[in-house]
């Protein structure tokens, strides 16, 4: 079966900085795939290139058999691709419900938007309790849930999650990882960028290790986990 996402020889540059240097990987439908590596390894740049937020300097990105390399984010959302960005990036002066609505901008059918709201509220009851509250007044963990919830509003086939557990209290981190497995059970395919190596490999099917903008390791999550020492070797921990 052809992969849902296929990235070939991807390069991303910011001026003279070569952030991603010839990355290849694929994600099959239904998988959770973890992307691990130190700060600056090129993980966010890779996700952002897939999501159309930064330009692919070279290489190709195929999604569901279609070349999406040069497509803009607003074109990608209706195709079934959504990103929950690093650093939460919610709209602080909008309510929780309005933030969620922003994630459904490509959904024209009002009933579908209502269903999406219901689905997100059932995943995150706290967001329902706070739906009229301004997003800027939520706790860090709640803002993170809102960012993930917003990405889910378009009903994505592939969800790109950039460091969803960053800066969260341990209990909330547990909830975030549990949520990711629930989403997988609901047939959402997930690309997960994380600093939390152990937890990511626990829930992931496979993983890729990035360093210096290149893939330096790949394999089944269980194999990567048993290799051990990953955090020391690759993350400079
Ligand atoms: P982090 O976990 O810190 O986000 P990362 O693995 O996601 O790390 P990237 O954020 O993709 O890595 O960064 C890769 C390289 O590109 C780094 O050297 C970084 O400094 C550089 N970089 C990232 N964004 C920009 C930008 N907007 N302008 C210039 N350089 C950038």
TrEMBL record:
List keywords of the entry alphabetically: Amino-acid transport, ATP-binding, Nucleotide-binding, Transport
Q: Which InterPro entries match?
A: AAA+_ATPase, ABC_transporter-like_ATP-bd, ABC_transporter-like_CS, BCAA_Transport_ATP-bd_LivF, P-loop_NTPase
Q: Which GO terms describe its biological process?
A: L-amino acid transport
A single Pfam family, by name?
ABC_tran
User: Which family does the UniProt entry place this protein in?
Assistant: Belongs to the ABC transporter superfamily.
Q: What is this protein called?
A: Branched-chain amino acid transport system ATP-binding protein
GO molecular function annotation: ATP binding; ATP hydrolysis activity; branched-chain amino acid transmembrane transporter activity
The cross-references to PROSITE patterns, in alphabetical order and at most eight, read: ABC_TRANSPORTER_1, ABC_TRANSPORTER_2
Which part of the chain is the ABC transporter domain? Answer: 5-237
